[in-house]
Amino acid sequence: MHSGSFPAAAQLAPGQATTSIRSGKGQTMDWAEFLKPYQVADFAPLSESFLKRWSTEQWEPNHDDRQASAMLHTQLASRVTTQRLPYQDGIEQAALESVFELFQNTRDINDRFPECRHFDAVAWEVLNTWVRPFTTKWHRKGTQGALSALDSTDEFRADLARLQLTLRCFDRLLLHIRDGFPPPAETTTSRDDTRIENEMRGTLRWGISENYGGIDPAIAKEMNKLEQEAIRARRTHYGLKEVDHAVAFALSGGGIRSATFALGVLVALAERGILPQIDYLSTVSGGGYFGSFLTAFLSSKSEAQIGLNAGDLPFRREAGEADALRYIRHHCRYLAAGSLWLRAKMMIAQLYGMVLNGFAITFLLVVGVGIERWLRSLSSVSTVFTVLNNSVIALLLVGSLIALLTMRVRGGWQRHADTFIAFPTVLLLILALWAGLGIAHTWAHTILVKSIVWPSWTSIRWLSIVGVVPVIASALSSLFGQIAKRSTLILIAVSGFAVPVFFIGLYLFLYDMGGLTAIAIPYYGSLSIIHLYFAILFLGSLVYFFLLDINFTSPHRHYRDRLADAFLIQPVDSQVAEGPFQSAGTVRLSELRTAAPRSPYHLINCALNVPGSKNIRMQGRLTDFFLFSQSFCGSPLTGYHSTQSWEQADAHLDLGTAMAISGAAAAPQMGLGTKKSLSFWLALLNIRLGYWARIPSQTRRGFRSAPGLTCLLKEMIGSMDERGRWLNLTDGGHIENLAVYELLRRRCKYIIAVDGEEDSKMTFQGLTTLQRLAAIDLGVRIEIDLDDLRLNESGLSRSHFRFCRVRYPREGRNSEEQVGYLLYVKLSLTGNEGEFLRRYRTDDPTFPHDPTLNQFFTETQFEAYRSLGEHIGDKLFLRSIVGNLADSKSIEIGDWFMELGKSLLEPLPSPNQ
Q: Would 554 be classed as within a structural domain?
């Protein structure tokens, strides 16, 4: 409503409500006595000095006072000054202008009713004492851009909410003046709030669904039983009441960036008593670093005060920061940790694995060379080849006629028509390849050796070029693909030929070498080629068929050890220890069931790579969800087995191993992110952080009890599946990077998801992937509006988080659709961060989305991400969002989500709408 616009209905006719405001005994009251009921301690509209100044005056408002009060009440009641401004609605600049207009409105009212002495004194006291400081402050900040983003206006909304308390009290005073008697008490809950409350009080029983969980019902029932027993034990430990729904926390992938950001958010939640109420902790990749830290720390048998309360370790603050969190800060450069000798061993182990992988390829080619040379040395080969060639051609001609005849015959013969053509054609191609291989040997020996003008250009150098050029092209396409996208097309085209060219070139070279009678070996002398061949055959067979363990030769174990040293720690009770913490050592997943029930039930998410699977569901994904937990491990594709059986099948499987597998981002096979042109080279160069786990049902004792050459070849060519004894596991982010999917499978009611993935353009790939997979597999719909998280012209978001509904499908024909709630916290900047973060972004423009490849955080970098996480965590408890809960240090999560819902959700439409 514009200033100066007063509806006639708001005016009082002369003589209306002329009863004087007196005490019950008929005596007129003074100002202090009359105004006393409106002097509520925290938001009294009138100051003590004002009451003292007017204490001798009698309270006798006249007609003009009542008329003026009626008109200002209309202005207050129709403005944001007394009406709630929902967090997700409204324009803050317009709200500020609406408040400022009260001054002009009051001046106009004074001009219209010059005898309103009581009204004039009270109104200008309220405006000058309360409204003017508010408008002055925010007018100045508004000109500086503080009201340009939603999340930057949290302080404005908080100040407005406090001002509204005073103005509502003042408005009741105006009504008292207008009517001559106090107004009835106002309701504190709006109609929309009531609808939200009724909705969110609905029940949602948690557990893996037999209809939508994708898991065998019998196994799902057993998993539900064990998980719910563990969760109830934790609730009992913390003295929580039993509820029929589950609360979950998810930490996304993103390496040390995600772990550090999640740390800051968790610190803010710990200070408000939220963490003891978390039932499930689901982690993936980098989020698993800190999640596994919590699980290992809380499983300690130490006599220290350990738990998830703010006063317990690891969150108890001492000397400004919790000691355990300070330990992580000092060890965040986990890949660069350790002595020079330790780092040297890591590098040598990596080279050792590369050499073994290269020799594996050479060994297989040498075997092929030996077989081919033996076949070509037979005198009858030429005759046999001619006979086979003529026979196959004749067979092809006959097969073509038979195929035509079978199409005229009724019955089942028609489906075999193509076979009569395809079989001889394949045989003919094999013979053609044999002949072509012979020509290639002649070309390689004659052209590359005898016809080269420069004697120094031997066949070895020519074949090295043939093999190396495609390798370089593959590397360039991987490293600079995002920088030079046009040239990348050429690089990808070249690298697509890299593997066959490499194999053919090396094979031709080895075949040419096999034509020698002997070869000179330094410090040994001349060695017969035949003897060398059999020596390679013997040693290669011994190494690659009996000794090789590609889990040992991969960098996985060093990656696992560095992560474990940095994050898997526990307090020590000994006073003579070097520090307050020690390595947790081997923490068995199955032993977490018997440990102190302090920790949430930990779900560690990985990806099962099955690009060679014949299962139709895997054709478009190449991966399946694989889960490690304290009770069961497995995937829907392979089934689930008890965690103890997995540990019996693999002595190296523990919490540290599961954490490292979940964070194995660099691997030849990476789900839909796999680059087929690079898979072979990544495997050959031993860039394999993944892990080969043995299926318990396929366990076979014996000397050959490790993944060997066959598994290595499957990684190189991408043919692994779920049918063998070994499963290839990598980073869970290769299929779902938010760690929320398993929580949706368990139908959790309240989910807090911390997304710390690298997403500089705010495309929300992790969330949208989750939406797609959840809808397809589980029938779950996530209804979320991301507009306030997208980047504006300044490269900032309007908010750090979104709150939305999760719609779970009906369990039965007559059942109702059930609703859960997701609080989505995004790694983002809005411009309202402190000076430290603003300055840091000036120094590092990529903040807060430094590349995941950067795992070497400095102390400043670590603190920047941790501070941002705590800053955003604190924003989740603003008074403008959660009301009076903002002052509490012990918040019940149901109440918190209820306030979030009332502030951030639109009510569901009623059935008759």
A: no
